[in-house]
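testing teh design pipeline on a random one, pls ignore if ur not involved
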């Protein structure tokens, strides 16, 4: 069916009004805040970590900073804030309290982009190829740690290995049979690792 000239004019006017509405209101609509991805919620920040500090709606205050050897960070409007020993969420909350003196209801997100802190690193000592501190990451397991340090040496008593974990103000010892994991594929021994754990692999007695 043919469309009359008057109807065509009405359609064009309606389209123009819709476009003007979208330009006026859509451009000013605030986009949803991004969900940060990074270290797990229980990650403990340590010296040497690199942090991305994102202050929502304030790009001038959003920076990437290292955690200094004294355990502190400095960002615009927040100077010498203690970061070591806190989770990203705790640090974000503390920064929001300071920024609240200058901004209305600030929202801060902290992303640990390079988790190299000593407090969160997993230390591996004893009979492994490369005893060292391994940066922790979310979902890390015993197998991840052992592979990262090059595996066990020929003198390792893998089935007498143990994880030393600081927990609830004390120390917990968790036994793990690494030889059963590495040689027999016993995945029951592939225990989850937590930040700050120490994996000890003793030497065989004979």
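output:
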């Amino acid at each position: 069916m043919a469309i009359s000239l008057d109807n065509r004019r009405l359609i064009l006017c309606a389209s123009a009004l819709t476009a003007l509405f979208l330009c006026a209101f859509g451009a000013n609509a605030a986009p949803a805040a991004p969900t940060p991805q990074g270290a797990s919620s229980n990650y403990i920040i340590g010296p040497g970590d690199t942090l991305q500090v994102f202050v929502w709606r304030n790009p001038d205050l959003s920076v990437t900073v290292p955690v200094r050897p004294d355990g502190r960070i400095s960002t615009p409007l927040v100077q010498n804030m203690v970061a070591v020993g806190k989770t990203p969420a705790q640090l974000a909350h503390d920064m929001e309290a300071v920024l609240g003196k200058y901004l209305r209801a600030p929202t801060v997100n902290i992303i640990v982009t390079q988790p190299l802190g000593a407090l969160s690193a997993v230390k591996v000592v004893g009979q492994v190829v490369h005893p060292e501190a391994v940066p922790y990451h979310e979902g890390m397991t015993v197998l991840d740690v052992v592979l990262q340090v090059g595996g066990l040496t020929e003198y390792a008593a893998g089935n007498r290995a143990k994880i030393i974990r600081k927990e609830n103000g004390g120390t917990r010892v968790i036994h793990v049979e690494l030889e059963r994991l590495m040689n027999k594929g016993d995945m029951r021994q592939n225990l989850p690792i937590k930040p700050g754990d120490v994996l000890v692999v003793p030497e065989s007695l004979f």
